[in-house]
Amino acid sequence: MKLIIALVLFQASIILAMVFLVGLPGPNESMGLAASGGSTAGFWYGVWHGFTSNFSVIYSLFKEGVQIYEVNNSGVGYNWGFLIGVGLTIKQGELLITTANLIKAIFRIR
Fold this sequence. Notes:
110 residues; mainly alpha; 4 helices; 65% helix; flat
């Protein structure tokens, strides 16, 4: 019985991994190509774009043509910067929640 459960879980995990892998984007044809300004977005632009991605998503709902990711990027450096920026945004949210809870505890606000 345990073997059957293990096999079912293994198959389910393989199917789930395949579903996630199908959604991965293809190669970026514009990587390394200069944008209209004459340069590609590097690591620091990636950090900034990742940090502001939440606002970009909201803004893109109201304005057509707004993207959260620069396709004319330097490659791995931009990708790492973008992930670090998104991580900073998540950490910032956690810090705000912690600060709000601390203020509530200090002033005994419900």
